[in-house]
Amino acid sequence: MREKWSSSIGFILASIGSAVGIGNIWRFPYIVGINGGGAFLIPYLIAVFLFGLPLMILEFAIGRHFQTSVVPAFGAIRKRFRIAGFFLVFVMVMILSYYLVITGWVLAYSFFFIIGEPVPFSLFTGSYYPLLSFLISAGICFFVVRAGVKQGIERLSEVLIPLLFVMLLLLLFFALSLPGAAQGIEFYLTPDFSKLSDPFVWSAAFGQAFFSLSVGTGIMLTYGSYMRKEKITKSASIITVSDLFIAILGGFVIFPIVFSFGLDPASGVNLAFVALPPVFQEMSYGNLLGSVFFLLLSFAALTSAVSMLEVPVATLIDSYGFERKRATSIALLIIVLIGLPSALSYTALKFELFGTPLLDIKDFVFGTTGIIIAGLVLSIIAGWFIDQKIIFDQIGGSRSMQRLFMLIIKIFIPLVLFINLMSRVIRLG
Fold first, then answer.
1. What is the tens place of the pLDDT at every residue in 125-134?
2. Within 13 A of 393's CA, how many CA atoms are on the CB side?
């Protein structure tokens, strides 16, 4: 018998845990920073509610109707679409294989600050500790997913998501008390409307909304297959608003710190692992604040990584009849083997291809490009080939709202994803 979430709140917290990843607290402020501050929030809000939310509703509806994960669900729409389902699972596996490396980094830095001995990132990546932390993060995800939907994924989210929120509020209180906080908030909230004429800003906004909400990859479809009688639109709205709220709060934490200590708001990865650790060491109670910050990132990373792992595990269970413990062992073994080169690319071995760390290459190929193609595949198959009555029975609402929803799914979302994909190709060229 298929597992179910034990409660609506458990399902919502697990889905928030999937959506709220490192991208909310680390990537979102970075994307805001390189796209001119407050101006970015306008297209981002449009992207979240006109793009991310409908796609999440769609995935929940498909998952709950077919009561199975992405490959069998696609196969039920059209048998030949099973291969498209396997493509989504493949993309998810490749993303998780390097996401666990970054999860390991934040776990390691949590430990360093807790014991009061922060390590420079260059020294950390010049050792083999990143390999060890990668294996530890993979092991944690293994035991959580192995325990099941209710006893593993749901229980983890019920503990970590409230803690994450409390930690974010503590950091917010500290950040707003800094002497340069007002300058950071002004940069964050003041819109430069000239930026809105830049199509790449809009492309970045839709890309970030897609990245942040965990939509288009089969995660929410899989989570939807464990739903009971929850109202899909209401649940998806709560999850989307929560994800958005945490991302915006992350900006209120990061920008005051950045401007108070003269850091570059567009420094990306370097901000979390290179620039901020020395800043925490300069502060009063710096080890405590650093511990809270990296634990916050760790909790966000783990809940997202667990949801990613559930996609291939559920595929093995639903498509091949594997028992959960065996499916989790097989899936994680494959992911660890694929992820080892990524983990080693930021160690003393410096595993690189054409002078670029393999982790960075995989992030571009799968985390930037592959994930958009996966979303394009999902939206086209679900929008154009599924019986619309299936979707309408799941989401309810008036006939006019249903027609508007399908218009967004069939036309708007594929068009946005295609434009986003092309803009990234143009930028690469």
1. 999 999 999 9
2. 10
User: Residue 1 domain-assigned?
Assistant: no
Which tens digit of pLDDT belongs to each residue from 159-182? 999 999 999 999 999 999 998 899
> Does a structural domain hold residue 365?
yes
Place of tokens 């608003």: 241
The tally of domains found in the chain comes to 1
Residue with tokens 């690319």: 345
Question: Are the C-beta atoms of 224 and 230 separated by less than 8 Å?
Answer: no
pLDDT surpassing 80 at residue 223: yes
Q: Are 335 and 134 in contact (CB under 8 A)?
A: no
What domain range is 355 assigned to? 8-428
Q: Where are the beta strands (DSSP E) in 162-279?
A: none
Q: How many helices (H) and strands (E) does the chain have?
A: 23, 2
Note whether residue 280 is domain-resident.
yes
DSSP 307-336: HHHHHHHHHHHHHH---HHHHHHHHHHHHH
The residue type of 312 is P
Whether 3 is covered by a domain: the verdict is no
Paired with 353 in beta bridges are 356
With beta carbons less than 8 A apart as the criterion, state whether 303 and 18 touch: yes
Contact 147, 310 (CB under 8 A): no
Long-range CB contact pairs, 127-132, < 8 A, 24+: 127/347, 127/348, 128/347, 128/348, 128/349, 129/347, 130/101, 130/104, 130/105, 130/343, 130/346, 130/347, 131/340, 131/343, 131/344, 131/347, 132/104
pLDDT (tens digit per residue) in 327-384: 999 999 999 999 999 999 999 998 888 889 999 999 989 988 899 999 999 999 999 9
* Lookup result for tokens 């979102």: 28
Residues 159-176 as b or e (16 or more Cβ within 10 Å = b): ebbeebbebbebbeebbe
Which domain CATH number covers 283? 1.10.4160.10
